[in-house]
Amino acid sequence: METPRGFGFPPPGQHGPAAAEAGADAGEAAEPAPLADDAELDLEADEATARVEETLEALDAELVGLASVKRRVREIASLLQVDRARGQFGLSSSKPTLHMSFTGGPGTGKTTVAMRMAAILHALGYIRAPRVHVVTRDDLVGQFIGHTAPKTKEALARAAGGVLFIDEAYYLFRPENERDYGQEVIEILLTEMENERGDLVVMFAGYPDRMAAFFSANPGLSSRVPHHIVFEDYDHGELMQIAELMVAEENFRFDEGAREAFSDYLTRRMRQPRFSNARSVRNAIERCRLRQARRLVALRRPLGKQDLITITAEDVHGSSVFTEDAEDEGNAETAGDGGGSGAGEGAAG
Amino acid sequence: MKFRHGTFSYLPDFTDEEIGAQVAYALSQGWPVSVEHTDDPHPRNVYWEMWGLPMFDLAEPDGVLAQIDECRATHPGRYVRVQAYDASLGRQSTALSFLVQRPAQEPGFVLERQEGSDRTQRYAVRPYATNRPAGARYEGG
After folding, report:
1. Which end of chain A is more exposed for a tag (fewer CB within 10 A), N or C?
2. Is the pLDDT of residue A25 over 70?
3. Domain identity same for A194 and A218
4. B139 reaches A (C-beta below 8 A)
């Protein structure tokens, strides 16, 4: 505020660039002068790099498989790192657009990767907070005319400075109903995504086939999302690894028989409809815990630590997946008791 | 005559960045922020018109700034202020309130004298702007 402005605030429309200029000046004054042309910069020495490495390692350790996704996340992280380095040499370039679309089957880790992505973007100073605001159609689309815009803007305001994660994004667009308000949401999102100064990152997530239809019906949207990341379904070995991780996380463990039984369970479950990868595994483990608890209570004897942490083959074999197969083969008596678990299977998706 | 209203009223007018910083402070205290406007700048006029609903559950000031911009664009000739409300028990009142826009021309106030009984004088303050009907008081309305 070196010169008094006299009366009043700058009129609308002019305050934006003026404020931005003032901000840029202040920022340059605070930052060190750009490096000389022949200087060299060690990316490893950047303190942001350490934080990014930490997050990437956590991503590698906690998420099984997903090689292509991890590679893509690394690429994006590298791009931002190099961008930072260029900035230190005083080389200005436009801020990279980082809107993304995550497509993949249910339970392939889209939301988890979004959280990690937010942490990485924050570490590199692209967004202000490692915050992910998860919304679905309900949170964006209004119920009557004029209700949609404020609702969408509210969601955008809450996500400001972080990541707006739109789950099942294809529900926004309903081609069969031309008066659907979803189109309005897409238009508002587009203007927000075009906004150069904003540091909001929009991520769209959904199942591959329907997302493909969604993007082909909205070419404007598709072209403004530079990063399309595809999440592959897990194979049997990866699912077993995931199961081991989940069991260990809950302070349980499979005994040998149970491991084999669970592997068998996965083979059968993967053939069934509505198999949703890691989420199905989690549900299966939850039900194993349930059966284990029932077995332990029925023992009617004092329990040791080993009893409490061990999941046995019997606990796994109780699943209705085995029952149904056995019934198909006309041999119901090998099935054990699948009674308590049948209702849960359909809810796995 | 410059209308001195609310917090920071004797400081130079804020830039958008400074407004953002103040709003960020209010949000960090857990105060929901709202935007209000009026063309009747009487000191005792405490109820200004609301621009939208108060904004709850925000973490960053961007949404508030967008609302302020919208309000300024719609009412370029009105006073616009930002209010932050502290809902905590025991306070439950406006915690922070400051102007973010004022009209280009502020004609000021007239002191009116009224003759009472026994030659007593009663005084009142009235903005010159209210000589004209609401909506036509300032350029740009």
Report:
1. N
2. no
3. yes
4. no
Report the CATH number at residue A24: 3.40.50.300
pTM of the complete model: 0.73
Report the alpha-carbon distance of residue A303 to residue A308 in Å, rounded.
Answer: 7
Query: Region B121-136: what's the mean pLDDT?
Result: 91
Cβ-based contacts of B100 with chain A (< 8 Å): 9
Do A12 and B100 make contact, defined as CB atoms within 8 angstroms?
A: no
Could you tell me the CATH number of the domain that includes residue A291?
Answer: 1.10.8.60
Is residue B80 predicted with pLDDT exceeding 90? Answer: yes
| Chain B residues near residue A7 by CB distance under 8 angstroms | 2, 102, 104-106
Domain boundary among A168, A196, A231: A231
Contact between chains at B73 and A18 (C-beta distance less than 8 A): no
Chain B residue whose CA is closest to A128: B60
How many residues in chain A?
Answer: 349
The 3-class SS string of A290-330 reads: HHHHHHHHHHCCCCCHHHHHEECHHHHHCCHHHHHHHHHCC
Per-residue confidence (pLDDT) for residue A85, from 0 to 100: 83
> Residue written as tokens 């490692």?
A130
Q: Which of A1, A3, A9 to mutate to test the interface with B (most CBs of B within 10 A)?
A: A9
A7, A154, A156 ranked by CB distance to B104: nearest: A7
Tens-place pLDDT, residues A184-202 = 899 889 888 887 666 789 9
Q: Which of A132, A133, A140 is nearest to A174 (CA)?
A: A140
What CATH number does the domain containing B91 carry?
3.30.190.10
